[in-house]
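In response to a reviewer's request, we include the raw inputs and outputs for one of the modeled complexes. The two entities were modeled together in a single run.
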Amino acid sequence: MSIPADIKRDFPVLQQQVHDKPLIYLDSGNTSQKPQAVIDAMNEYYETTNANVHRGSYDLAVRATEALEGARAKVARFINAPATNEVVFTKNATEAFNLIARSWGAANLGPGDAVVISEMEHHANIVPWHMLSAEKGFELRWIPVTPDGHLDLRDLDTLLEGAKLVSVTAMSNVLGTLNDIPRLAEAAHGAGALLAVDGSQYVPHVPTDVQAMGADFLIFTGHKMLGPMGIGVLWACADLLEAMPPFLGGGEMILNVTKEGFTTTEIPWKFEAGTPMVAEAVGLGAAIDYLNNLGMDNVRAHEIELTDYALRTLNERYGDKIVIHGPQVASERGGVLSFVYGEPDMRVHPHDIAQVLDQAGVCVRAGHHCAKPLLQTMNVPATSRASVYVYNDESDIDALAEALEASSDIFAF
Amino acid sequence: MPGLDDLYREVILDHYRSPRNQGELETPPAVRTEGFNPLCGDEVIVFVDVDDNNVITDIAIGGQGCSISQASASMMSAAIKGASIGEARQFISAFKGLMSIHEGELGGDGSEAEMGIDADVADVGDIRLGDLEALKGVVKFPVRIKCATLSWNTLAQALDEAASDT
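The model returned the following structure tokens for the whole complex.
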């Protein structure tokens, strides 16, 4: 079994032309496209099931509640969570990090404490800690990144002294680097710290088992895994969630409210104030069904194959005119390929590359990829980034390689 | 449909390849101001020397960015070197008018269009935009407007600082 050759047919948005060229979508690290099955599931929910959840006593509301909680169960199974009530729905991964910071962080961090993150984090796993640190006075420490794009763990023991939380990405959204999460879990726990893992780039692409990872928190987002925008996931073990104070206050998250105060309801709803994103949960559930149907092992194998093809194709064709950042072996990385292109002494700016590629129908991202500290370490102001997913194939990489040539013509000196 | 030729006009590529007034000026007497485009990480540093008669005697541009932001900064420096602060401010509003009138047509706020700046002609009041008119094609690529205006916004800030110094 492998990824079907005609998989693009499942994705309506890919059936179009831009600038009279077929759309070549290579920006899935940013957001993924949605299969018809996800779009249909969300439409069907609104056409047949829509009601507010957890409060109606009528049949329709019961079915809506089942739709939401059924999606939660699918998410739990997808990451091999020990229990369904350990899955908290958030707006996105960014909100999940803010939830950890504002709830667990505000209750547990103070002067003399440290939070350890890495230089390859997305701003979503940086800014909430900057914000909280300014209020609570704990120290924010950084695991450095080596020139070849790996975490430099040589001084990890020192970094972990006095740390209460380690929060790192499982896969870099710029370099594609896969980090050794079980090792980090062991080190963090050995130092008495918890481990939060940013799975935004990892969970959509690699079979995920939170128990094998050894993480205490896992964060990911629906829209990067064929699901809709507007739903993210925070997983944490039940004991931890029970002990954490609520995040947002309002309806849905309470057991009782009086003029004097309130008590919170049980997990996970304690963290889900207000009317939740039910259709989005249904869409995420349908995306998980779709991925399970492909088989996550096949998804990962396809990605390694395609990443290997891209590394070979681009390096062979362009030699020293292209530098692809991060690990050079496909099996050690994900399918996000950040690169600089142009003559070695005069690279074409990524913004200009993205513009030229767009004219050829090729969508890539240009910029700092919400990882400015990493780009500073890499000493580049910006990169172009092509990122692949299940619906990409070798023809997309060929189109990218061909379209890059045009930027040489325009910006040649 | 706009093509790349509308964006990458030869005069723009010329300024990109051979940027004018690149470098730094000693501060003080020069004023140094940084501008950022948070979208793409581009950064421009504008140095201006203003004499007692409010004339911009020298300007230097630092930082890094795409062809549009670099070319725009280069052309700007050539256009306003030797101008008075007042003239430079006229240049700034003329140029931003050139960018924002079209932004308005494309659904932007059009605020400067309401100020009555007619950007479809190259002469705005006493100001001749000259080479800068080549950047008009940028408005067909709305994402790039911020690249083109980055150095101008930074210059405006630098002039405010220089004016408050004197």
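As requested, we also summarize the result in words. Chain B has one domain: 4-165. Strands of chain B lie at 31-37, 42-50, 56-64, 123-124, 127-128.
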